Amino acid sequence: MQFRIATWNINSVRLRLPLVERFVAEFAPDVLCLQEIKCREEDFPLAALQQLGFSFIEVNGQAGYHGVATLSRIPMTRMSSKRFCGADHARHLATALTAPDSGGVVIHNVYIPSGGDIPDPGLNPKFEQKLVYLGRIAEWFARPENRSERMIILGDFNVAPLENDVWSHKQLLTVVSHTPVEVEHLEGLRAAAGWVDPVRLHIPPTEKLYTWWSYRSKDWRASNRGRRLDHIWTTPSLAPHVHRVTVADAARDWPQPSDHVPVIADIAIP
DNA sequence: ATGGTGGTCCTACCA
Known about the structure:
- By secondary structure, the chain is of the alpha+beta class.
- The chain has helices at about 15-25, 45-50, 125-140, 170, 180-195, 200, 220-225, and strands at about 1-10, 30-35, 55-60, 70, 75-80, 90-95, 105-110, 150-155, 210-215, 225, 230-235, 240-245, 265-270.
- It binds one DNA strand through loops.
């Protein structure tokens, strides 16, 4: 079985429902993981998204901020929604594909805290919370009972780990999202389950690659001061079966865009 | 060096 999975920080699913519809029409994902839906479950545009063919939809939402949702055309069940940093934030949703030929793939859709402006956990509680979140989610995946052979973790990680994941490694070393301490914490999460980054297997680390461009620039493509904040990782056994990856950067030019663009992986389940 | 934009939901807070 082959399927296409995508992650997209949508920055309000209600406001940008037309963009989700356009993305689905143009890119036909079988599984779509959204972050920053910014609504409660009861306000989620369920019927409109079911009409796009997603018969299986799970939502972990809250009013106004954060929130994640996982939509699937393939049979899928909800597993859990953890609060890794203690705060009452809707930032995680685990589901599992249940179709017999889907390999029982477990999908962790995450929205890691942004971390505020000052990269010092002593001065900035938001930065501390980000590091705590990364530490706790790593601890969770380090426990064998929380792992399985075929897993995907994807979402807005709010960390650009590699030098070519940002427009200027040197200038962003002290900017939240690319500081060494965040990169170390993200590496802790990666190592906890032996996660592989198949996006960088397909697009080599020597190439610049971004998934986010700030709203605060006149011409995002001309200035191109982007960062790769959105990621799709798989367990080692799944990584060789990711046969294509796409960053749908055209979506950054759609009307009233999100500041993030979708990242897509095509996976053939062995 | 600074301020630049955008979403939620009514006043700041968050990104």
